[in-house]
């Protein structure tokens, strides 16, 4: 990845990290009008960044989060003693004669802070596999797939525009958004030879279609009563489940009102 592309990914990641805080903070300070203003501005900025990545830098199917979170356990370098022993050819492991089990020798046991429960070979293989996944180039997109990804990127803007035209109680924004999401996934379904990150992203988008059960007006008219009834039933009749379902019943209405939780 080039430096400008990495900067775009960084800014996109920052926006996704602060969008909920910005929405709630703006609503508290400037009210409902300020809340919707910051929502539109953030979604517009995200769409511009994603379109630049798609059309200019040919970034392919864009994943969420844009930058993979750092796994400090896997990124942690090997123990200095391990590295020194590896360079001198000294055996770092012992293979049991009867069990054939591979264990680390006592001389090569790292400190408690850097200790892991796999053999050095397993850890090295895991690091190499993760590095390969990170360095895999994006799958080239044809015209159909580029249109599909563009539909997915611009869907939030079209949904906000339809909310402004028809209002939050109308079914038209909900239906328009659902049609765009399903159309994008359908057009991308013919794409083959995706890398692991891209496959995981398409699975994530498919699972997120369930969010339409929690989005207004469908939630207000159909889902709310049934979901709350199910959670209440589980809390009353299944031992121990109430510790999870009762706080969820209290949290669900607040979650449903936050745009970036529900629609972002």
Automatic annotation (TrEMBL):
Q: Where are the transmembrane segments?
A: none
Keywords recorded for this protein, A-Z: Peroxisome, Peroxisome biogenesis
Keyword Transcription regulation on this protein? no
Stretches of Polar residues bias are at: 106-121
Q: Where is the composition biased (Basic and acidic residues)?
A: 122-133
Just give the chief location class: membrane
Give the record's GO biological process terms.
Answer: peroxisome organization
Q: Where in the cell is it found?
A: Peroxisome membrane
Which residue positions does the secretion signal occupy? none
**What InterPro entries is this protein classified in?**
Pex16
Q: Name one GO cellular component term.
A: peroxisomal membrane
**Region (Disordered) spans which residues?**
74-140
Which family does the similarity line name?
A: Belongs to the peroxin-16 family.
> What is the name listed in the Swiss-Prot or TrEMBL entry for this protein?
Peroxisomal membrane protein PEX16
Q: Which organism is it from?
A: Centropus bengalensis (lesser coucal)
């Amino acid at each position: 990845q080039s430096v400008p592309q990495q900067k775009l990914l960084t800014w996109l990641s920052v926006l996704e990290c602060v969008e909920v805080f910005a929405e709630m903070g703006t609503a508290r300070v400037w009210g409902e009008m300020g809340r919707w203003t910051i929502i539109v501005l953030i979604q517009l900025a995200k769409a511009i960044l994603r379109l630049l990545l798609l059309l200019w830098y040919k970034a392919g199917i864009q994943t969420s989060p844009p930058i993979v979170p750092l796994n400090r356990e896997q990124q942690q370098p090997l123990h200095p003693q391990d590295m020194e022993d590896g360079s001198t050819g000294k055996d770092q492991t012992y293979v049991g004669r009867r069990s054939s089990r591979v264990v680390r020798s006592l001389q090569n046991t790292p400190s408690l802070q850097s200790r892991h429960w796999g053999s050095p070979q397993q850890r090295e293989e895991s690091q190499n596999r993760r590095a390969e996944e990170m360095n895999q180039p994006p799958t080239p997109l044809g015209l159909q797939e580029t249109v599909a990804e563009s539909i997915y990127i611009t869907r939030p803007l079209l949904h906000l525009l339809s909310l402004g035209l028809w209002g939050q109680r109308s079914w038209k924004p909900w239906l328009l958004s659902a049609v765009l999401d399903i159309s994008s996934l359908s057009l991308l379904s013919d794409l083959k030879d995706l890398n692991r990150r891209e496959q995981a992203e398409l699975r994530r988008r498919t699972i997120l279609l369930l969010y339409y059960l929690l989005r207004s007006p469908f939630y207000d008219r159909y889902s709310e009563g049934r979901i709350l009834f199910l959670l209440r039933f589980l809390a009353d009749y299944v031992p121990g489940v109430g510790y999870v379902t009762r706080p969820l019943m209290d949290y669900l209405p607040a979650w449903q009102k936050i745009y970036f939780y529900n629609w972002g």
